[in-house]
What we know:
By secondary structure, the chain is α+β, with helices and mostly antiparallel strands. The protein has five helices and eight strands.
Amino acid sequence: MTTYRIEPAGENDIKTIQGIARATWPHTFGSILSDGQIEFMLDRMYSTEAIRRQLAEGHQYHLLLVQDNDPMYPRGGEHYAHMQGQRYRAVGYVSHEFDNRPGTTKIHKLYLLPGSQGKGYGRLLINHVERLAARAGQHSLRLDVNYQNPAVDFYEHLGFEKLGRHDTEIGNGYLMEDWQMEKSL
């Protein structure tokens, strides 16, 4: 398997998070949501101000970095140096919040660049959040996922169970139509 690292992300990483989101959302939601809704949601959830606010409210972002020692590597993702001279490329991120409800960690976002999907990286990010949540004394993980998103099957495979549908009006006449899913730790 490719060498990887999962590192906390902060304000200096906002552009990387935004870049991954902008590369991923059309691929993930292009057949589910209109272009207008995708753009509306990206602007609403991934503006610099929105991410800063999320960080200030206790959302923790972590970047998935994969080793990339080829300086000419053509595909997206910011490069990060490591003290041993290794180069890493950001291919995804996860955002979570402890005690979104008492004892429950909510996974707000988990996205991987399209070329990095299907390689086990999503499982690595979920496992990482599970470990952090368990260390923090949490008893469950929770997330919302669009009911048409193929990732529903991925989450079920990892032990998440559907609790029910939850639709949220988000403005401009748009609706988020999600499954609420939960996994006990």
